[in-house]
Design brief:
Length: 456
């Protein structure tokens, strides 16, 4: 148990992935499984429960791995969860990401018809994430997962993606990642930005009050919903060569190239935020977790330090929207767990080598619609909230048309035209990561609830 103020989280019942940072550096793997036999599916859940890391376990090097299990709507249905319970889940979860692709801006090259199979189809039932400090421990834990299902003929591994983090902690675009996560009340983790109090626990974990003061809608029965969280999984291919070519064509030298990239992202490649060092990179600041997230945007309303349309500022406007009173930013915060996949494009290389590389984006929160979907559609894909309706996020905005990006500066602003899509969606799923007690409940579902309504 962990307590902060009046909030006590049942950490020994909560999967660790939503509350704890990954080891750094790390290697990992994402697995998608299909259930063809209900009894085998329940037996697999029983075996996997023993492997799942709870929120009481710290991820120091002595531990094997961070092991998380989540289920799609079709997966819960395949296990025989009663229909009235299935109907109690959030509508977005029940529909699935592929059905909501157009709303999310996953169109054109990013549309589900172009996704990696079987992502986005009813054949994905269970999602497993394994993150470990090194290859040896990763292989040891993935072997345990393999042994858990190898004797179960009704279980198939239908998709796998290996991932990693470079020792620099940077993404394929070259920027340091994993900065700016919100702290969660009751988790025992202090906020990295003292200007931002911890989020109410119910914003991330079901069964606790959220920022509205009420309890978020929770699946029934209580044992199934409480201490669970929704998980959004997306595989995003990054067009690194196109990104580098775009910057090179619009910069007079390497220094300006780095500055333009920082203006688009909102941080320098080192992780140093423009809000604290707008003119030159500060690698020492960028590498200091005690300082690289300690800032707000309220003193920069016009974006002369960090453009209002920069990726990091769009994803988390902090106090920048406080004056208009129309948006409570804290209602749209979420836990992000991005990981990299594929080989890095060598430094300085401007030609695409044909390799698949990018980011596995994972979100955890209690509200798919007002957290992930709101940020994706209202802040990243659209510029209305910043007074620039024709501008999308310069890095991850909707890819169905070219966009523009405005860099405020004196005496004359600069506008980058014809921004092509740099990120393409390769697939995704809406999942639910239940508590450990809920996993035991799923494993022990009585045969009497295996009704016609709940057959796959």
């Amino acid at each position: 148990m962990a307590e902060t103020g009046s909030v006590t989280l049942e950490l020994d019942d909560i999967q660790s992935g939503a509350l704890h940072e990954r080891p750094s550096p790390y290697v990992g793997a994402y697995l998608m499984l299909r259930i063809d036999d209900r009894a085998d599916g329940r037996e697999l859940v029983r075996r996997l429960t023993a492997l799942v890391s709870s929120g009481t376990q710290s991820l120091d090097p002595a531990n094997d791995a961070w092991f998380t299990v989540a289920f799609t709507y079709h997966g819960l249905k395949a296990l025989g969860v009663p229909q009235d319970s299935l109907d109690s889940f959030a509508p977005e979860f029940r529909e699935g990401m592929a059905a909501r692709a157009e709303h999310l801006g996953d169109v054109g090259e990013s549309s589900p018809e172009n996704w990696e199979k079987p992502l986005g189809t009813p054949d994905v039932h269970i999602a497993i994430a394994v993150i470990s400090p090194d290859v040896a421990r990763l292989e040891a834990v993935t072997e345990k997962a393999r042994l858990a299902h190898q004797e179960l003929a009704g279980i198939s591994v239908v998709w796998r993606q290996d991932c990693y983090q470079l020792p620099t902690g940077r993404t394929s675009f070259g920027f340091k990642d994993g900065i700016g996560q919100p702290a969660v009340e009751g988790s025992g983790r202090a906020p990295s930005n003292p200007h931002e109090p911890p989020l109410k626990a119910g914003e991330i974990i079901l069964g606790y009050p959220d920022e509205t003061g009420g309890l978020p809608p929770m699946p029934s029965p209580d044992i199934l919903g409480r201490n669970g969280t929704y998980v959004v999984f997306r595989k995003l291919h990054t067009k690194v060569a196109a990104y580098r070519q775009y910057l090179r064509a619009r910069a007079t030298n390497r220094e300006e190239e780095a500055l333009l990239g920082a203006k688009m992202v909102g941080r320098w490649q080192s992780g140093a935020p423009l809000a604290l060092t707008p003119d030159v990179d500060d690698p020492e600041l960028g590498s200091d977790p005690q300082r690289n997230n300690v800032f707000l945007y309220g003193d920069d309303p016009r974006g002369f330090k960090c453009p209002v349309g920069a990726h990091a500022r769009r994803a988390n406007p902090r106090d920048a929207l406080a004056d208009d009173g129309s948006t409570d930013v804290r209602l749209h915060r979420m836990i992000r767990r991005g990981t990299s996949y594929g080989p890095m494009l060598p430094d300085g290389e401007l030609e695409d080598d044909g390799a698949d590389r990018g980011i596995i984006f994972v979100f955890a929160g209690a509200h798919i619609k007002r957290q992930f979907e709101f940020v994706k559609t209202q802040w990243l894909n659209d510029g209305i909230f910043i007074g620039a309706p024709g501008e999308a996020d310069p890095i991850v905005g909707s890819s169905h048309h070219a966009s523009t990006f405005t860099i405020p500066r004196r005496p004359i602003r600069r506008r980058l035209q014809d921004l092509p899509p740099f990120v393409i969606t390769r697939g995704g799923e809406y999942c639910f990561a239940p508590s450990l007690s809920a996993m035991r409940w799923l494993a022990e579902l009585p045969h009497s609830v295996s009704t016609e309504e709940s057959t796959p």
